[in-house]
Specification:
It comes from Rufibacter glacialis. This is STAS/SEC14 domain-containing protein. This protein is an alpha/beta fold and 131 residues long. It has one domain: STAS domain (Transcription Regulator spoIIAA, 2-Layer Sandwich), CATH 3.30.750. 40% of the residues lie in helices and 31% in strands. The protein contains four helices and six strands; from the N terminus they run βββαβαβαβα. β5, α3 and β6 form a beta-alpha-beta unit. α1 packs parallel to α2.
Length: 131
């Protein structure tokens, strides 16, 4: 899969696969609430800029608990991302128990679009390519 690099910060890398219309976010480390919000706002900018409909949201390397922001992701950011064109959102769970639980919480709160959680990036990518 050919990716075009869009953004790199200490906590987030964004790439775009124009062939499959997939925006790939790779998160890493212990994330502050500010890093999470800034990261998701950047994802929104690139969803709009690339007219992208699919997000592969890779949390595999995230450590720690961010459950405080699960509701913000689901109820604030996600509806805005959908308004920008997001239709399919694949989360890759972290290997960290607390981060995994935080992602599950966000998934459970998103009720307005097609979302799914996966244990590995390959499965998430395959699922997104099926649309």
């Amino acid at each position: 899969m050919k990716h075009r690099h869009l953004l790199s910060t200490e906590s987030l890398t964004l790439e775009y696969n124009a062939i499959d219309d997939i925006l790939l976010s790779k998160w890493k480390g212990h994330l502050s609430n500010e890093q999470i919000k800034e990261g998701y706002e950047s994802i929104g900018v690139h969803l709009k800029k690339n007219f992208c409909h699919k997000l592969l949201d890779n949390h595999l390397e995230v450590r720690g608990l961010w459950v405080d922001l699960a509701e913000w992701v689901a109820k604030d950011w996600h509806p805005r991302a959908e308004a920008l064109g997001l239709e399919y959102h694949a989360f890759v769970f972290s290997t960290s128990t607390f981060s995994h639980l935080s992602t599950e919480k966000a998934l459970s709160l998103i009720t307005t679009s097609i979302v799914a959680g996966f244990e590995e990036e390959g499965s998430a990518e395959k699922w997104l390519k099926s649309f």
